[in-house]
Specification:
By secondary structure, the chain is α/β, with parallel strands linked by helices. It contains 16 helices and 11 strands.
């Protein structure tokens, strides 16, 4: 998220301020037997397989089974467009990278994280040619990566682990789709990218290896469901039904992985074969995972938030740190225990 996006977030927050002033306080903890309110839920999406259980829920009828009158999956190509839609109320909820959600809350947008969706374990990685043996070898070397994205976050995490900063390398900004190609062509000795570009690079040059990946800083590269405060206040039954639908889809996926992967691949516009290694590098979160990790002493609050705050702050992607109370509304996952 480049600085221009941060400016956009601040402007969007300012435009939403009057609505925030008029909004009632967050309602009391929802009861598990609360029925969904009437109306269609508008859910913002991007073509990333980590959001895939929504495609499963849609195709398998889980939304209707959990009492929702309708869920419209609305695709966006860029974060800035989803940010604007969330701020204006054109969508009710959105699926975002965790650092993007934190930046939105930091800028004052009226949203909360209600559920962890997925984390990348090996689907995002720093890959290198044989000249790079350790993270320390990156010093003074050219590294290709896309600014303002999860690649940016992962690179800062890797550098911090080696006691370095961006000033210690030669940054080569470019789209993630081009970073692996630059490494293969010998233009750079290191690149940060994600699937399916990682698999393409490995297939074209077997000497390329992974030096650092999402699992080296668990939860750093992850995605969350954010919901507008207005929906949390006025339609808590729909929020509960969404979480139940994700869980139903998750269980279907666990029981029928090939069918589930085929559904998700269609949803993101690819074939299951193209995404085979990508699926292997992504962990989906269940409700039980959420109930464990979103506790005060849980992994997300205790570890992931701190690491994301540092990496996003170092990358200039987080205006100021946010607290768990500002960022999270855990009442819904707790109600479904």
């Amino acid at each position: 998220m480049p600085m221009s996006i941060l400016s956009q977030l601040r402007n969007l927050a300012a435009s939403a301020s009057l609505a925030l002033l008029a909004a009632p306080a967050i309602a009391a903890a929802p009861s598990a037997d609360l029925k969904p309110e009437s109306g269609t839920v508008k859910l913002g999406m991007q073509p990333w397989l980590g959001y895939g259980q929504w495609y499963v829920a849609d195709e398998q009828g889980h939304f209707a089974a959990n009492g929702l009158q309708g869920v419209e999956l609305i695709n966006f190509n860029e974060d800035k467009d989803m940010n604007a839609a969330l701020a204006s109320g054109r969508i009710d909820a959105g699926n975002l990278a965790t650092h993007t959600a934190m930046a939105m809350v930091s800028a004052g947008l009226p949203v909360k994280i209600v559920m962890l969706l997925d984390q990348s374990t090996s689907a995002d990685a720093l890959i290198v040619d044989p000249s790079i043996k350790t993270l320390a070898d990156l010093k003074g070397k050219a590294v290709a990566y896309e600014e303002g994205t999860t690649s940016d976050i992962l690179l800062h995490s890797a550098l911090a682990k080696a006691g370095m900063t961006l000033a210690d390398i030669r940054p080569v900004p470019m789209p993630a789709s081009s970073a692996g190609s630059a490494l293969i062509a010998g233009q750079v000795p290191a690149a940060v990218t994600y699937e399916p570009y990682l698999s393409v690079a490995a297939q074209q040059n077997p000497n390329i290896r992974t030096l650092y990946q999402g699992s080296d800083d668990p939860g750093l590269i992850s995605d969350v469901l954010v919901v507008r405060d207005e929906m949390l206040q006025k339609r808590p039954g729909q929020v509960l039904a969404l979480l139940r639908s994700w869980e139903a889809a998750y269980r279907f996926y666990q029981a029928n992985p090939q069918q589930g992967q085929a559904i998700i691949a269609r949803g993101v516009g690819a074939s299951a074969d193209e995404l085979d290694s990508a699926f292997a590098g992504v962990k989906f979160y269940s409700l039980a995972d959420n109930q464990r990790d979103l506790q005060v002493q849980g992994e997300f609050i205790n570890t992931s938030m701190r690491h994301i705050t540092k990496a996003a702050g170092d990358a200039g992607l987080l205006p100021q740190p946010v607290s768990p109370a500002q960022l999270l509304d855990t009442r819904f996952v707790e109600a479904l225990k």
